[in-house]
Amino acid sequence: MPPPVCQFCGDPATVHLTDIVQKVKKESHLCERCAREKQLLPDPVGGHLNLQALVALVLGPPPPAAESAALICPTCGLQYTEFRKHGRLGCPADYAAFRPALEPLLDKIHRATAHTGKAPRSAGDGRAKRTELTDLRERLRVAVAAERYEEAAVLRDTIRQKEGADEPR
Amino acid sequence: MNLDDMLPTLGEWLRGTGPDSDAVVSTRIRLARNLADIPFTTRASAAQKADVEARARDAIAKADISPKLDYISVNGMAPLDRLFLVERQLISRELANALDGPRGVAFDSRESVSIMVNEEDHLRIQVMRSGLALDEAWERIDAVDDAIESRLRYAFHDRFGYLTACPTNVGTGMRASVLLHLPALGITKQIEKVFKALQKINLAVRGLYGEGSRASGDLYQISNQVTLGKSEPRLLAEIGEVIGMILTYERQARQVLLKERRQAEHDRVARAIGTLGSATMINTDETMELLSAVRLGIHLHLLDDLPLTTVNQLFIHSQSAHLQKLTGQALDGEARNAARAKYLRSRLRDLGGR
After folding, report:
1. How large is the average pLDDT for residues A156-168?
2. How many Å lie between the alpha carbon of B160 and the closest alpha carbon of chain A?
3. Which residues are within 8 A (CB) of B284 and not within 5 positions of it... i.e. 6 or more apart?
4. Which of A6, A39, A78, B14 is disulfide-compatible with B312, CB 3.0–4.6 A?
5. A111, B230: Cβ pair inside 8 Å?
């Protein structure tokens, strides 16, 4: 196995971080200079570890940021990077404009990316029927991820049953 | 609307009745909603906020909601009045102080429905119920939401659901909170264990006055974190299930207290009443703590001639803005603590010189 290199500058990595978030292991490798720049190492005298930077490193992986950073909402003009700084979106159209970057974020926050609940009447009737199946599939995904296999098996059977019942229509 | 008229009344959430009211103070559900064609509040201009306010007021006035909701503007309102509404749980601290521009709240005289306008989201609809009443609260807020929706076009996305300023609220836009009184779990030192378990299943625990507020008086708000990917009834069922378990633990702990240290508990409750009725200076935290002991005493039948509604009234009247309205003057620091003690002394004396 080649020695790990810093994920930011490509120098040999001497700082290795392992984080486990929602049972998913994530490893980060950095050289000392980048680690210090990103305030992941305490300063020699009396410094404190920058937890925020550490969390940002784990939760907001920089590689796709190049693309995400370029995202801008055509309706309100908000840039994706501004949203990440303040945590608030600018207008409803942002959800479509930032979708590629937002979906992974929603998955982290909610462990889901699709709404399955109430909808305004103006959104149409088709939703209600789809909702139950989407909901079941989501629960199945979560059950599998959490290794609750007995529950997953029951859900799988229910889904098959419902799919069967729905198809002729 | 004269806010001072509300002083003698208890809002819906402090009625002290409803299912499981031995340990559940109240149930609250809120829905975050935004208008489809206007930027979210933090990015909206003053003119756009005024537009949202005008459209919301019109919809609220014409919508089929009974009892009727009255709208009051919060910008321009005196700081004391804003704090008064925060203490009654009708508006958030953010709407009161952190935000600017046109904004306000509509609510009914029972204080069971409130709609904040131009909070972080254009509309924050809230329904309160005394005791544990998740299903009932949902039915009500669902109907209020329908009535408003028939007059306003909401921002809704086929995949992401109701769109909100913060992605932590997207989807259902629903946050359901149950306010619990858990003194016995506190005394028996099991509360931390309960909370660790809650965090694992994505439920948030906070103090009474919302985000960042710490628990005082053994009052804890438990709410859902997830708003996307599960239907409203399912989210509510999940919370309801967990609340049911916590209630079982709390009641068991209360039985243990009665069995193993009845005399000591009786003494603690009597001392709490004694302090409330004789102190000459008392701050909010100590008041909350003592009232918590009294509340538990009532539920354990260690005290039987003090109604729960009286405890709730002492509780709300001890809050800063209520106290200042009652005494009719602005008070701070020592003066406020002295006025609080004086109020409590006179109320407890009226109740029969205990």
Report:
1. 66
2. 5
3. B216, B318, B319, B320, B340
4. B14
5. no
Name which of A87, A91, A95 is nearest B157 (Cβ-Cβ).
Answer: A95
CB-nearest partner of A116 from B42, B164, B230: B230
Task: State chain A's mean pLDDT as an integer.
Answer: 76
**How far apart (Å, rounded) are the C-alpha atoms in residues B196 and B208?**
19
Instruction: Give the nearest chain A residue to B172 (CA atoms).
Output: A117
| Out of A91, A105, A120, closest to residue B149 by CB | A120
- In this predicted structure, the answer to whether residue A167 has a pLDDT above a threshold of 50 is no
pLDDT for B209 equals 64
Chain B nearest-CA residue for A134:
B229
Name the residue type at position A121.
R
Q: Taking Cα atoms as reference points, which of B178, B186, B196 lies closest to residue B288? A: B186
Does the structure show a pLDDT above 90 at B204?
no
Task: Please give the ipTM for the structure prediction.
Answer: 0.87
pTM value? 0.78
pLDDT of residue B254: 96
A105 chain-B contacts, CB cut-off 8 A: 167
Nearest-CA residue of chain A relative to B231?
Answer: A117
* Of residues A80, A135, A124, A131, the one with CA closest to residue A102: A80
Q: What local confidence, expressed as pLDDT, does residue A65 receive?
A: 53
From A132, which residue of chain B is nearest by alpha-carbon distance?
Answer: B231
* Torsion region of A17: left, alpha or beta (phi above 0 gives left; psi -120 to 50 gives alpha): beta
Pick from B135, B144, B137, B79: nearest CA to B106: B144
The 3-class secondary structure across B148-179, one letter per residue, is: HHCCCCECEECCCEECCCCHHHCECCEEEEEE
pLDDT at B104 over 60: yes
**CB atoms A113 and B159 under 8 Å:** yes
Lowest mean pLDDT among A89-93, B38-42, B284-288, B300-304: B300-304
Higher pLDDT, B349 or B163: B163
Candidate from A88, A96, A120 with C-beta closest to B166: A88
Give the β-pairing of B24-33 and B174-181: antiparallel
Contact A76 B171 (CB under 8 A): no
Whether the pLDDT of residue A142 is over 80: the answer is no
C-alpha B254/C-alpha B248 separation (Å) is 10
